[in-house]
């Protein structure tokens, strides 16, 4: 249950950091890249049964 909530939260954070939104247009791709890496790590942990 906690893993699912964490995964959904990280997906929303990734969508919010995309540079197409007006509030994050000047950030570039760095925040979405960082959140993408965190999302991949969480997916691996969920699939391995650690979360």
Explain what the structure shows.
- The protein is an all-alpha fold.
- 67% of the residues lie in helices and 0% in strands.
- It is built from two helices and no strands.
Mean of residue pLDDT values: 75
Estimated share of beta-strand residues: under 5%
H/E element order: HH
Overall 3D geometry? elongated
Radius of gyration: 12 Å
Number of strands: 0
> Count of DSSP helices?
2
Characterize the largest beta sheet: strand count, sense, and whether it forms a barrel.
none
Regions with pLDDT < 50 over 5+ consecutive residues?
none
What characteristics describe this protein?
51 residues; mainly alpha
What is this structure, in a nutshell?
The protein is mainly α. Helix content is 67%, strand content 0%.
Set down the secondary structure blueprint.
Elements: H1 2-16, H2 30-48
Helix pairs in contact: 1-2
């Amino acid at each position: 249950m906690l893993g699912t909530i964490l995964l959904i939260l990280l997906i929303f954070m990734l969508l919010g950091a995309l540079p197409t939104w007006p509030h994050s247009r000047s950030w570039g791709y760095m925040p979405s890249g960082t959140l993408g890496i965190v999302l991949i790590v969480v997916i691996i942990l969920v699939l391995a049964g650690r979360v």
